[in-house]
Amino acid sequence: MLFIKKLKQLPPQIRQYFLVTANYWAFTLTDGALRMLIVLHFYNLGYSPLNIALLFLFYEFFGVITNLVGGWLGAHIGLNKTMNIGLGLQVLALSMLLVPNSMLTIFWVMLAQAISGIAKDLNKMSAKSSIKLLVPKDAEDKLYEWVAVLTGSKNTLKGVGFFLGGALLTLVGFTGAIAILTICLTLTWLLSLFKLKKELGKAKNKPKFSEIFSKSKAINTLSAARLFLFGARDVWFVIALPVFLANQLGWQHQSVGAFIAVWIIAYGIVQSFAPLLTNTTKTTNTAGTTVPNGKNAFFWAALLTLIPACIALLLSNNIYPEISLLLGLMIFGFFFAINSALHSFLIVSYADEDGVSLDVGFYYMANAMGRLIGTVLSGWLYQIAGLTACLWVSSGFLLIAAIISLSLPKQKTIITTQQG
Hints:
The structure is a single chain. By secondary structure, the chain is mainly α. It has one domain: MFS general substrate transporter like domains (Growth Hormone, Chain: A). Helix content is 78%, strand content 3%. The protein contains 15 helices and three strands. It has helices at 2-9, 12-44, 49-55, 57-77, 79-96, 106-134, 140-195, 217-237, 240-247, 253-272, 274-278, 294-316, 321-350, 356-385, 387-405; strands at residues 280-283, 287-290, 413-416. The protein has a three-stranded antiparallel sheet with strand order 1-2-3. Residues 280-287 and 413-420 have low confidence and may be disordered.
């Protein structure tokens, strides 16, 4: 009761931030668990890596469409509605998987995943766009912190979701696990319907549908870099890694889920603390914080390029393959988390406040396109050439992302004046 009383005493913006974050957390937990459940369950049924990748094809494809259209929709009807629509659609997608196993055909699962992909990107676009509206103007350093916490905590919970998916599959089976996730998310959805601010995110000037494509050079450049950044991750992470761990290294489901969970949790924690690693403080007559810019985006992407290449070389020469893979991927996770946090801040910073969801939606459309390309390549490349090939392609994608980042705006400094 004391906690609820203190919560009610907080400023409205903070309460809304907490609610947006809670919605994002709950959704992400179910989304991570569902992904792991599908990968492991259908691998057990004898599906090839490419066929498993195809189960996620609609998920990623409709994510591309949703981000492109969802930003325009959010500007027209408000971010509260797009977030709640996303939660409701995820409940529907989970419910579709409660049918008997005989009805879980490839088409049916792909259809459920299509709905889940729409739901996920409506939820993400709504959450990321909302932060721009809840942080005071000209508080870029604070904006960076809030975006980092939202994104980092989300990925930490996604890692917990991966672990949860593997554990639930072992404990209660596929159908039982889906039922538990459906009930929990339904309760979150009902709370959000009643508590989320009604007018959040509506644009004063309603954009035309033709305006869904960004006209900002900075946002277009950042979006292109984001496409290759996330393609570089998912080309090994989505299909190749869990199948390699289970098939080549003989890991049990719980172990696969636990490792990927630890990876994503650690990745989320690093994201949350990214401002401490990338901001710089000046201590002259004035004290200020230099928030990240295009120069930082290039530097961190260039560093990341080296890591999958090193792992691939170690695996190709059979140098402690298990240790090389696991340790290398943890290092990759650290640097990838910083890259992702920088990008997440830059898009919110670059976005126009009136109709922010348009710019954020366009950017996450590119993110979803990268995930789509990475997912398909992950299954296909692993099937024809193995994990090493996936890692080499990852390194190549990262090099492209770094080169693109050279065109991003360079400097943006926030200064707070001190007397004396």
